[in-house]
Amino acid sequence: MNRLTRITAILIQLQSKKVVTAKEIADRFEISLRTVYRDIKTLQEAGVPIGSENGIGYFIVDGYSLPPIMITEEEANALIISEKLISNQGDASLIKDFNSILIKIKSVLRDFEKENVAKLENRIVPSYKKEIFESNWLSIIQKAITNTKILEVTYHSIYKNEQTLRDIEPLGIYYTDKAWIMVAHCRLRNEIREFRLDRILKINVASQTFDYQKDFSLSKYFSQLTDPS
């Protein structure tokens, strides 16, 4: 990758997050921190309003944006593969949201790239699964996590064959071989529980919010589950 291409890619990366660290940039492009600092300075001298905070990272000043970004054919192909994988994971809301953004992305492709993508769409199939537990709640839950909104959930327990109404604080989501799972703090049980999305019968987003748990992460959650101590 030549320097001009890299600097353009760094600018796009800066717009992808609120704050980007120099290490993130260095790791992505396999360059030294000194090179990162030089590239950032080049962008600043070109008039791009890049701010920085010591020990935190770089950020684009609010109000600045790039013109519509063109993507490469390779990137478009990666999206087609992602589409196939997502369509095989059972959640209708995720499929709908991804298809919507994919249509927008396809709209900026050049004609020959659109033709190539169309060819590829019929030549890729994800692994065949005989049984998928279908759901339609992923989009709502993702938004509730980012906005720290309490969810009122009607949940069907297979083991007890009963329905319960729970007020929960959604913390994370992960996918098993067949179903999407939500990790949440259940106010009814006063502990962290897992909820299979296909067993949720109804969700209502409450007006109440909960305190965002900055120290929670799924990697930490899984390690605690497997820790014998």
TrEMBL record:
Gene3D superfamilies: Winged helix-like DNA-binding domain superfamily/Winged helix DNA-binding domain. Keywords: Transcription, Transcription regulation. InterPro entries: CBASS_pafABC_assoc_protein, DeoR_HTH, HTH_11, WH-like_DNA-bd_sf, WH_DNA-bd_sf, WYL_dom. Residues 3-58 form the HTH deoR-type domain. SUPFAM superfamilies: Winged helix' DNA-binding domain. Signal peptide: none annotated. PROSITE patterns: HTH_DEOR_2, WYL. Transmembrane segments: none annotated. Pfam families: HTH_11, WYL. PANTHER family: PROTEIN PAFC (PTHR34580:SF1), PTHR34580. This is YafY family protein.
